[in-house]
Amino acid sequence: MMTDQLREVIAGVDTHGETHHAAVIDPLGRHLADEEFPASGAGYRDLLSWLGSHGTVAAVGVEGTGAYGAELARVLARGGLRVVEVDRPDRKTRRLKGKSDPIDAYAAATAVASGRATGVPKARDGIVEAIRALRVPRRSAVKARTQAINQARQLLITAPEALRAQLRGLSAIELATACVRLRPGGDCSAPLGATKAALRRLGRRILILSEEITELDAELKTLTAQAAPTLLGRMGVGPDVAGQLLATAGDNPDRLRSEAAFAHLCGVAPIPASSGRRDRHRLNRGGDRAANHALHTIVLSRMRWDDRTRVYVQRRTEQGLSKKDIMRCLKRHIAREIYRALTDDLYARQHPTLTTLTDLAPAA
Predict the structure, then answer these.
(1) The Transposase IS116/IS110/IS902 C-terminal domain covers which part of the protein (predicted)?
(2) What does the pLDDT look like over 148-195, one tens digit per residue?
């Protein structure tokens, strides 16, 4: 028993909605034991105790730390264990080795032991997680409002001219307000009455969603100002863009090893595609596409309003680059700037007395 407690082991966990399957291996990769636990508070405690009974746990590889394994990752981290984010096995591996919970759990442990898995999971226990949660209903509300506006305008295309003339040339909110005031009458068997009834319901939906979006925007503006004042000070970065970049980075800045890693995370780092004497790079279509879109928004803003960016665009255009190529270059440059501001803000929240890179920078 004493030997078991002194032995170093590596663990892996295959996570699901109702159960988690854990496995432990030794540093040589030999399978030691595996067990299934319920995905509950008691199950997490039992899993933690079970891991400790097999020796000193060097690290735990967890699948799905952003989904089913989120709470387990938090529990393991609070228990003093090093948690490593593990990708789910690809289809080729599953075809060759099969698929089962024990197989996946052992594969997660092996990925950590071999050094293939090194990712640090998001902490999901701070203000950034709060921002991410609030962005979920905002995103769906914006999508639903846009859909309702489009449906209302589509109905007007085939509506009788008298109704079209009444609602022509109005903005989205003005149209919704006017639609709410329509009186369809009791007979919906006539096309005019049915159209008015449909527009009234769509107008009510648009106004309710607009109010919800306004409330969420106010909450997100307050939270992003607390979490990332330096980031918000960068040109082209508003609460929505800052919120997305924070959600991509997570609460723990140690996940971002370098500005190059952040660029890869956002999908703006060119991928080497050289062969023989031909030296070239190809477009990176991976990474977090929402973060990529946030950087795209910053680029569009600066191309219109920032003098330095406009000079850069003109110079690169004269060199023969297309607009798309110029925007890709700008995204990569801006990712470097955003990384610095983002990590400064996140480190400042973790270590209020720590001097940041921005503090050390000379005044302009």
Answers:
(1) 235-313
(2) 999 999 999 999 898 999 999 999 999 999 999 999 877 777 888 899
